[in-house]
C-alpha cells in the first residue's frame, strides 16, 4: 500500500454511501500593512504573520492558479470522513480552499493492484458525490469552457484524475472513466503494470503494446497522459507515441537530485517540451533535494533549471501536497505513509520543505519567483497559464 492507495482504501466505504480572489486586504478584516505589503485573510487568526508584496498578491488574484497535483486531503481519515458523508464538510472546512489562492485542484491518487477498477470507481464516484453535494462551493472542471470560467465562477475547481491506469482493463474502460469525469491519468504509478513500468521497479522496461493502445485511446477521447511516476523508458516512450502533448504533472529535475527515481532526466524534460507538454514542480522535500537544508529557495532552483533547459512555457506547479502538509498528518498515518514506499524514496525527518506556507502557497511561490526576477507574464504562466493552455489542447475529442 502506498500513500495514495491508503487514501483509496479509506474510500471503499465512503464511495458506497475564476475563483473569486481568495484573500482580503486588511481593510476587509486583516489590516493592510504599510509599504505595499499585505497580510492575507485568516493568517492573523491562525497565529501566523506572513506578509506578501502587492505585486505577488495581484499576480495570484489575476491568475487562474492550477495545482496539477493537490489532493484536498492527504489524510486517509479525513478522506473517509468527508467523502463518506459529504455533510461532514462544513463552511469552516471550505474556507481554507477558498482562501488558498488555488483555483483548480487536481486531486489524483494512486489506485492499483487486483482491485484497481473498483478502487478507482469508488474514488471517482465518491468525489462526484461530494461535488454534487457542495456544488455551491466546488465545481468539477472537465471541459475547456469550465477551465476558462472557473476563476470568475466564484467556486473552487476540482479536476478528477488518477495516478495510475491499472483500472483500464480494456480499451473501453478508458471511455467509461472519461464518461464519469476523469480527465487525467498517469500511465503507471511506481510499479510495473500491463501498460508500462513505474519509477521504482528494478527493471526499466518501456511501454507495452497494450500501453500504446491505451495512449491512443486517451488521445482520441481527450484524456491527458501523465508520466510523473513512470520509469525512464516508459516516460520517453509515451512522448514518442502520443499524438497530443504529454504532461509531467508533478516531478522534479534529476540534475538537481541525481539519485531519486521520481525525478526526471534532462532527456525526458526535453522530450516533454518537444511534445508541447508542461512539467509541474513538486514541493516534497526528498524530491526537491537529497540534502539539508531543503527550503523554498532549493525548490525554486528547479523552476530555474526547467526554464533554462526548455523554456518557461513548459513550467507549472504540481505541489503533491494538501493545504496542511505531510508533517501535519496524524503520527500513525505519517508512519504508515513512510512504510509504504521503497527505500529509494529517501524519507528524512521531515517531508515538507522549510520556509513555505502550504495553505497560501501560490503567494509564497509568486513572491519567490519575483525574487528570481521572473516577469509578471512568466509568473502568471507558471501559476496556471501553461497548464491551462495545454489542457485545452488535450481536451478535444
3D structure, described in words:
The protein is of the alpha/beta class. The chain folds into two domains: 3-27 and 64-394, Metal-dependent hydrolases (TIM Barrel); 28-63, no CATH class. 42% of the residues lie in helices and 10% in strands. The chain is built from 15 helices and 13 strands. The strands form three sheets. Strands 7, 8, 9, 10, 11, 12 and 13 form a seven-stranded parallel β-sheet that branches. Strands 3-4-6-5 form a four-stranded parallel β-sheet, with helices on both faces. It has a two-stranded antiparallel sheet with strand order 1-2. Helix 9 (232-241) links the parallel strand 9 (224-226) and strand 10. Helix 1 (3-16) runs parallel beside helix 3, helix 7 runs parallel beside helix 8 and helix 9 packs parallel to helix 10 (266-274). It is globular. The protein starts with a helix and ends with a helix. The model is unreliable at 14-35 (pLDDT under 50).
The secondary-structure class comes to alpha/beta
CATH superfamily of the largest domain: Metal-dependent hydrolases
Number of strands: 13
Give the amount of beta strand, in percent: 5-15%
Q: Residue ranges: pLDDT <50 for 5 or more in a row?
A: 14-35
> Can you write the helix and strand succession as a string?
HEEHEHHEHEHEEHEHEHEEHEHHEHHH
Globular, elongated, flat, extended or rod-shaped: what is the shape?
Answer: globular
How would you state the average pLDDT, rounded?
Answer: 90
Distance between the termini: 35 Å
Task: Report the major sheet.
Answer: 7 strands, parallel
Helical segment count? 15
Query: Which second-level CATH architecture of the largest domain applies?
Result: Alpha-Beta Barrel
- The rounded Rg comes to 19 Å
Amino acid at each position: 500500500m502506498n500513500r495514495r492507495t491508503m487514501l483509496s482504501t479509506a474510500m471503499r466505504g465512503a464511495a458506497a454511501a475564476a475563483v473569486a480572489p481568495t484573500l482580503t486586504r486588511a481593510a476587509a478584516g486583516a489590516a493592510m500593512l504599510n509599504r505595499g505589503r499585505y497580510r492575507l485573510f485568516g493568517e492573523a487568526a491562525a497565529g501566523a504573520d506572513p506578509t506578501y508584496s502587492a505585486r505577488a498578491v495581484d499576480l495570484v488574484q489575476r491568475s487562474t492558479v492550477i495545482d496539477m497535483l493537490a489532493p484536498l486531503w492527504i489524510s486517509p481519515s479525513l478522506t473517509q470522513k468527508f467523502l463518506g458523508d459529504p455533510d461532514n464538510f462544513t463552511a469552516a472546512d471550505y474556507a481554507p480552499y477558498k482562501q488558498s489562492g488555488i483555483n483548480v485542484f487536481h486531486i489524483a491518487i494512486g489506485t492499483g493492484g487486483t482491485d484497481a477498477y473498483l478502487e478507482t470507481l469508488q474514488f471517482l464516484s465518491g468525489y462526484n458525490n461530494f461535488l454534487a453535494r457542495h456544488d455551491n462551493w466546488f465545481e468539477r472542471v472537465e471541459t475547456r469552457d469550465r477551465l476558462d470560467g472557473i476563476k470568475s465562477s466564484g467556486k473552487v475547481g476540482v479536476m478528477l484524475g488518477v495516478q495510475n491506469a491499472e483500472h483500464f482493463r480494456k480499451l473501453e474502460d478508458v471511455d467509461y472513466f472519461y464518461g464519469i469525469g476523469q480527465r487525467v491519468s498517469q500511465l503507471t504509478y511506481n510499479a510495473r503494470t500491463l501498460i508500462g513500468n513505474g519509477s521504482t521497479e528494478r527493471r526499466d522496461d518501456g511501454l507495452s503494446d497494450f500501453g500504446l493502445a491505451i495512449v491512443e485511446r486517451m488521445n482520441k477521447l481527450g484524456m491527458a497522459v501523465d508520466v510523473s511516476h513512470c520509469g525512464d523508458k516508459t516516460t520517453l516512450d509515451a512522448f514518442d507515441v502520443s499524438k497530443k502533448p504529454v504532461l509531467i504533472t508533478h516531478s522534479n529535475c534529476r540534475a538537481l537530485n541525481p539519485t531519486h527515481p521520481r525525478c526526471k532526466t534532462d532527456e525526458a524534460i526535453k522530450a516533454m517540451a518537444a511534445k508541447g507538454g508542461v512539467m509541474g514542480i513538486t514541493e516534497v522535500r526528498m524530491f526537491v533535494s537529497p540534502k539539508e537544508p531543503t527550503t523554498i529557495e532549493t525548490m525554486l532552483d528547479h523552476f530555474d533549471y526547467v526554464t533554462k533547459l526548455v523554456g518557461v512555457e513548459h513550467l507549472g506547479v504540481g505541489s503533491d501536497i494538501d493545504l496542511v502538509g505531510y508533517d501535519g498528518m496524524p503520527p500513525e498515518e505519517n508512519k504508515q505513509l513512510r512504510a509504504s514506499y521503497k527505500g529509494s524514496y529517501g524519507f528524512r525527518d521531515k517531508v515538507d520543505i522549510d520556509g513555505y506556507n502550504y495553505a497560501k502557497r501560490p503567494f509564497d511561490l509568486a513572491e519567490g519567483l519575483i525574487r528570481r526576477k521572473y516577469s509578471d507574464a512568466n509568473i502568471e504562466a507558471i501559476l496556471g497559464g501553461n497548464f491551462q493552455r495545454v489542457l485545452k489542447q488535450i481536451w478535444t475529442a
